[in-house]
């Protein structure tokens, strides 16, 4: 059973998400919070698998709450998906850097929300398909000089290649087609790369791909 905490200051939004999630045989809403401080308390108490976290909340905003979750080693298994009203929310970029496993716009289709919850539990990043490329482009535009790539020295040549493709926004299936391997093999390469680099999930791997200079803005196409 996938346990979820809902953190949003709008009770109507929480009620809608709860009704959808609780109707699934493999998902249950373990708790609800109306602000960031309450969300943190519930997360530490309940240790949910996934937190659906609104970016703008009173007391403590979703960004700050997410950073506290991702920086706490005791909460390493908790995945955070940020919720935003607008696709181009100025905080989405910082949300990914803060350790969120992805983000969704609040008017996303119900099936996409359910896929999101299940995907992040499996270790995949979740970004609304309509904005994935724009988010990566925004990251590229804001990137400064690449950081030292010393951490990449532990990767095999194939793992570096796979990491670069992840950084360009490709799914496991797309990576598999590009490299002419099975999707399972592609997923295995991605997983091993995350373990070697200490990345929480695929979203953080995208960040590392840009920060290390493995992927450059001009490659977006």
From TrEMBL:
Keywords: DNA-binding, Phosphoprotein, Transcription, Transcription regulation. SMART domains: HTH_LUXR (SM00421), REC (SM00448). Gene3D superfamilies: 3.40.50.2300. Signal peptide: none annotated. It comes from the Bacteria. Residues 148-213 form the HTH luxR-type domain. PROSITE patterns: HTH_LUXR_2, RESPONSE_REGULATORY. Residues 3-121 form the Response regulatory domain. The modification 4-aspartylphosphate is found at residue 54. It holds the Pfam family GerE. This is Response regulator transcription factor. It comes from Streptomyces thermocarboxydus.
């Amino acid at each position: 059973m996938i346990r979820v905490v809902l953190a949003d200051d709008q009770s109507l939004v929480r009620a809608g998400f709860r009704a959808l999630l609780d109707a699934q045989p493999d998902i249950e809403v373990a708790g609800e919070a109306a602000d960031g401080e309450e969300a943190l308390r519930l997360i530490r108490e309940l240790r949910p698998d996934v937190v659906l976290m609104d970016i703008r909340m009173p007391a403590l905003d979703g960004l700050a709450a997410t950073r506290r979750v991702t920086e706490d080693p005791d909460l390493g298994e908790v995945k955070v998906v940020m919720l935003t009203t607008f696709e181009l929310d100025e905080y989405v970029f910082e949300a990914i850097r803060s350790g969120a496993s992805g983000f969704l716009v609040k008017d996303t289709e119900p099936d996409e929300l359910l896929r999101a919850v299940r995907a992040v539990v499996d270790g995949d990043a979740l970004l609304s398909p309509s904005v994935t490329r724009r988010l990566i482009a925004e990251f590229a535009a804001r990137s400064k000089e690449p950081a030292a790539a010393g951490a990449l020295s532990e990767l095999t040549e194939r793992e570096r290649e796979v990491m670069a493709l992840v950084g360009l926004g490709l799914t496991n299936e797309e990576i598999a087609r590009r490299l002419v391997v099975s999707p399972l093999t592609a997923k295995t390469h991605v997983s091993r790369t995350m373990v070697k680099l200490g990345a929480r999930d695929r979203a953080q791997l995208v960040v590392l791909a840009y920060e290390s200079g493995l992927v450059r803005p001009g490659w977006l196409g």
